[in-house]
Amino acid sequence: SQSKQTMGFQAEVKQLLQLMIHSLYSNKEIVLRELISNASDAADKLRFEAISNAALYENDSELNIRVSFDKAARTLTISDNGIGMRREEVINNIGTIAKSGTKEFFQNLTGDQAKDANLIGQFGVGFYSSFIIADKVTLITRRAGETEAVKWESHGEGDFTIEATEKAGRGTDVILHLREGEDEFLNDWKLKTIVRKYSDHITLPIVMKKSEWKDGEQVPTDEDETVNKASALWARSKNDISEEEYNEFYKHVSHDFENPLAYTHSRVEGKQEYISLLYVPAKAPFDLYDRDRRQGIKLYVKRVFIMEDAEKLMPQYLRFVRGVIDSADLPLNVSREILQDSRDVEAIKNGSVKKVLGLLEDLAENKPEDYAKFWEQFGRVLKEGPGEDFANKDKIASLLRFASTHTDSETQNVSLKAYIERMKPEQEAIYYITADTFAAAKNSPHLEIFRKKGIEVLLMSDKVDEWLLGSLTEFEGKKLQSIAKGDLDLGKLEDEADKEAQKQVEEQAKDLVERIKTALGESVKEVKVTHRLTDSPACLVAGEHDLSGNLARILKAAGQ
Ligand code: ADP
Ligand code: MG
């Protein structure tokens, strides 16, 4: 066994700890929520590993979480008999290595305490939140199946110590040595209230000592009592679940700090039997574009946690969705490989995608303000949809929102349907322009003729727009057409007089065009008289089948 060792926190961890202690002191109750949440995750992991190795239970298969306190020693302890941790796991999980997304997190800090507290919440405060109420934390843990236990201890400043120790039962004890003034965490009634408020949905029993009144004081007895409901929230009937319970459960599965924007809870029966409880967050996480980001959906089989795997259960373009899917049919020993090409999983995924798209449609229709919030956070991700999910292309397309010349505002709030409703009677296509920035799109000389004729054009400047337009070529029978590509054919929007005038101009300009062609030589494909412009003298146009100027710029920037 190894002797006591002192190790330093990674610089970012140190910074995070300081920030957390100073900005979250008014949210002390979340400490209990975070530690209970970790204990619950540890039990889930043990149950899963024990499916293939029952010996891990060590004759103790009654999983629970215990909350206890010692008034004299001023300690609050959260214990679990879950999976536990090995020495390296302790070092890696709580201490030296910052979570993915830490850098982005620091970049997003504003210095405004209220705002930053919110950001910390989104980032996921987790274990470190202990230091909000404790000036010393001792963690003693033994991994299921191992003999050696580990003791980790820290004051939450620069470093922590780690040493070998003994522990009879498997799992983890987290002992909080409370800061001065934190006596409410030594109060039985207060603790039980907090547990019920934040952790009622936890599937495991959260056990505390029963207390009785003696001489005007509450004194713990030797008898245990289960404080929470300890039933899987998603398996309960909708009518029995309050809004607050839904919200707390969301915070548990998502590690988010704020309430969700919307959710859908359903029990599917028939060929595939499963329950899904899926949430749309109110805010995008920092790691939305990070490949190593947290997974999104927890898969359960008959209430047993199996794994967290976003890809098999939710497509990439819905990667922001959080929640639980509990199948009644999949085998308990389902592996990642089985999930990969299981038709049952495919059916569950398809059903769940429909639920989420339905939820978004409902939001768009009935709560437009919430939908605007959703779009601001996740619109760019949803735009990946038509390219990824062919079967639901039309549904997704109707959920898309764009900026357009109708408002000339950068806010993306024009649906394709609204665009079509405003189309001129003779107009056949949905016109758009893509550019690097909104300003470039809005001020493009290509727009001149459209503005003059009062024809609306969608202004696209998100990177993902080019990818979107590659797969979304029409909507409700109307072609999506770039106004910056090929010959501009306004079709029936041009009258005979226009065409006659254009012909005359072309005749007159013939010599000029020849001279420009000679001057520009190889650097252009073609020089033409245009009717696109009303004010500007000239513009660059991509060929009908060429990359658009914007896409060419994106590829060049990416080194291709
Ligand atoms: P998160 O729970 O979001 O991963 P935390 O800071 O809460 O972040 O915990 C960090 C990690 O420490 C967990 O992912 C887990 O691996 C480990 N951990 C924390 N508490 C426990 C526990 N009670 N039992 C086993 N592992 C734990
Ligand atoms: Mg946690």
From TrEMBL:
Compartment(s): Cytoplasm
The UniProt record lists the keyword Lyase: no
Residues in Histidine kinase/HSP90-like ATPase domain copies: 27-182
Region described as A: spans on this chain: 1-336
UniProt cross-references to InterPro entries, sorted A to Z: HATPase_C_sf, HATPase_dom, HSP90_C, Hsp90_fam, Hsp90_N, Ribosomal_Su5_D2-typ_SF
UniProt entry tagged with the keyword Cytoplasm: yes
The entry's keywords: ATP-binding, Chaperone, Cytoplasm, Nucleotide-binding, Stress response
Pfam family, one: HATPase_c_3
Gene3D superfamilies referenced in this protein's UniProt entry, alphabetically: 3.30.230.80, 3.40.50.11260, Heat shock protein 90, C-terminal domain, Histidine kinase-like ATPase, C-terminal domain
Oligomer and partners: Homodimer.
Protein family according to the UniProt entry: Belongs to the heat shock protein 90 family.
HAMAP family (UniProt xref): HSP90 (MF_00505)
PANTHER family, A to Z: HEAT SHOCK PROTEIN 90 FAMILY MEMBER (PTHR11528)
Function: Molecular chaperone. Has ATPase activity.
Protein's UniProt name: Chaperone protein HtpG
Organism: Methylophilus glucosoxydans
